[in-house]
Amino acid sequence: MLNTAIKAARRGAAIINRASFELDRLTVTQKGHNDFVTEVDRAAEQAIIEVLHTAYPGHAILAEESGGSDNLHDENENVWIIDPLDGTTNFIHGFPQYCVSIALQQRGQVTQAVVYDPTRNDLFTASKGRGAYLNEKRIRVTRAEKIADALIGTGFPYNDMSGLDEYVQMFRIMTQACSGLRRPGAAALDLAYVACGRLDGFFEKGLKPWDVAAGSLLITEAGGIVGTFAGESDYLYKGDVLAGTPKVFAQMVQLLAPFSR
Fold first, then answer.
1. Rounded to whole angstroms, what are the CA distances from 111 to 62, 102, 234?
2. How many CB atoms are located within 10 Å of the residue 68 CB?
3. Residue 160 has what pLDDT?
C-alpha cells in the first residue's frame, strides 16, 4: 500500500513539475477569497486517484478537489485522503514550497503516509509501527526540550478572516515564547518538517483532513506528538492542529489551550 501511494504521489508530481515551467499559461480559478485552484490541482488529483483505484478499486477516496467518493460513507474500512497540491498559492507564484500529500486511513486510523516535495525531490514516508523516513533514511523529531529554543511553524488565515484577531493574539504569544516563527504556506510539508527535525513544532487552526493526515503519521512515527490545541487526539477532522517534540508539544498546549474550540 505504501509503494502504491509513492507511485501515485510521483505520478501527480510529474504533472505539477511539467506545469511549473509554464506558470504564465495556467488557468487559475478561485474557490473563495484567496482560495485558488488550478487545472494542475485537478489533473494531479485525477492521476493520483487513478493509480490508487487501479490497485484498490474498492477503497474510498477523500480528496481536496473532488471531495468524497460515492462509497466514502458506506462503512468503508479503507479511505485514501489526498491533497494533490498543498500550497497552491505558492505554486502559482513560483515559490518553491508545495507538496503532494497522500494518506491511508484504515478503520479510523492513519496507517500509511506519503508527503512528496517535487521541488527538492524529498520523499517523506511512514507506515504505522514501522517508523518515518526521508528518502529512505530514518528520521526523528529533534531533541528540543524548551519552547524558548524551538523553531515553530504555523499557518494563518488566508480566506476566512473571521479568526484573524484571535490569530494575532496567538502570534504575539508564540513569538514571545519561541526562538522563531515561520509560515511557509504548505501545512503538510510543515508537518513533515517537524518529523525530520527542520522544525521543532507546528500549530494552525482550520485545517482539513487532507492537510493533516499524512503529516501527522510522519510525526508520531518519528517520535513526536500531534493533537488539538487542548492536547486531545481528535485533530484530524476538528481542524485545529498542534504538533512537536514531546516536551515542546506540552509547552505549546499550555500556551494555546485557551484558543481551543
1. 15, 11, 16
2. 12
3. 66
Kindly write down the DSSP assignment for every residue of 90-143, as one continuous string: HHHTT-S--EEEEEEEETTEEEEEEEEETTTTEEEEEETTS-EEETTEE-----
Residues 218, 117: contact at Cβ < 8 Å? no
Any idea which residue has 491511508 for its cell?
Answer: 104
Strand pairing partners for 241? 204
Task: Say which residues have a Cβ less than 8 Å from residue 167's Cβ, sequence separation at least 6.
Answer: 156, 157, 205
Q: How far apart are CA 7 and CA 52, in angstroms?
A: 9
State how far Cα 175 lies from the chain centre.
22
Q: Which residues pair with residue 126 across a beta bridge?
A: 113, 132
Can you read off the three cell numbers belonging to residue 185?
504556506
Neighbouring C-beta atoms of residue 109, cutoff 10 Å: 10
CA 18 to chain centre: 22
| 199-233 pLDDT tens trace | 999 999 999 999 999 999 999 999 999 999 999 99
CA–CA gap between residue 124 and residue 102 (Å, rounded): 11
Give the 3-state secondary structure of residue 227.
strand
| Residue 92 and residue 36 in contact, taking contact as beta carbons nearer than 8 Å | yes
H helix or E strand, kind and range, residue 250 = helix 246-256
Q: Give the global pTM.
A: 0.93
Query: Distance between CA 240 and CA 257 in Å, rounded?
Result: 11
E strands, 17-91, where?
28-32, 35-38, 60-63, 67-68, 78-86
